[in-house]
Amino acid sequence: MKFIEEVVVEEFLPTFRTMLAGALRERGRTQSEVADLLGISQSAVSKYAHGEVEVNDAIKSDDRVIELVERLAGGLSSGDMSRVQALVETEVLIRRLERGDLLARRHEAAYPPIAAYDGPLDIHDPEGELRMTERVRSSVRRGVRTLENTSGFAALIPAVGSNLVEALPGATTIDEVAGVPGRILDIKGRATVPGDPEFGVSAHVASLLLATRAAGSDARAALNVSYDAETIDALESAGYVVAEFDADADLEAAVADALAETPDADVLYQTGGFGIEPICYLLDADASAVVEAVRHVAR
């Protein structure tokens, strides 16, 4: 595990201090004065001046870094800028470069698992997409593990396979819904999961979930299981609200009609159609909550 703060310490700060120390010396500041302005030792300034500190070329050549170094050197030398202001200005630039920018790219290079992420990367944003996508993956992962260890679940897997999916807040496309790649299958009486959760891998269950959300549902997760009357009865007995939709109709329209009639439904089902297997869809706030419904029908 490599933190972006380590990239700042190991790559940005040595480069930035070398550049700033050099710029201050060029403006006639003594080694002692440079050390005082930067809050570092004179021996450190000497190392910067003699090229004994490794610098990062990508950081050194960045126009924003160059501009800030010149501005700080001029302000600190003239006394127009305080050391506190210089620190704040530098921190602002660092945070900017960490948000899907130069330091984020350096972080990806230093920690390859991050490089697999395609979206805008802001490692510090508590509401950022990276944090949310990883939370959703983790939620689906936990739900899948529970399903694998739930006695009787394999018997509920339909012929087309099951999938457990969870959407990002505000999701409108399949690419914003995480699920099991290749679906969960019943192999010799055991629920078998082919891979780790990914986004954009479930066309079927994800589309159903998105249709419910488009119709006004707050559900962010869904699981499909095989349909029979006993399953519906068991869910109703457990307090779930069920609604039927037409398997032969357009999915979005059929789901919208079902939810218009039963807006509180947390179970949708269809009894089949031409070439369509009867399926029951469990809906809830997250993957773990959806999986909780399975214990009421597993047998």
Automatic annotation (TrEMBL):
<dbReference type="InterPro" id="IPR019293">
    <property type="entry name" value="ThiN"/>
</dbReference>
<dbReference type="InterPro" id="IPR001387">
    <property type="entry name" value="Cro/C1-type_HTH"/>
</dbReference>
<dbReference type="Pfam" id="PF01381">
    <property type="entry name" value="HTH_3"/>
</dbReference>
<dbReference type="InterPro" id="IPR010982">
    <property type="entry name" value="Lambda_DNA-bd_dom_sf"/>
</dbReference>
<feature type="domain" description="HTH cro/C1-type">
    <location>
        <begin position="20"/>
        <end position="48"/>
    </location>
</feature>
<protein>
    <submittedName>
        <fullName>Helix-turn-helix domain-containing protein</fullName>
    </submittedName>
</protein>
<dbReference type="InterPro" id="IPR036409">
    <property type="entry name" value="Aldolase_II/adducin_N_sf"/>
</dbReference>
<dbReference type="Pfam" id="PF10120">
    <property type="entry name" value="ThiN"/>
</dbReference>
<dbReference type="GO" id="GO:0003677">
    <property type="term" value="F:DNA binding"/>
</dbReference>
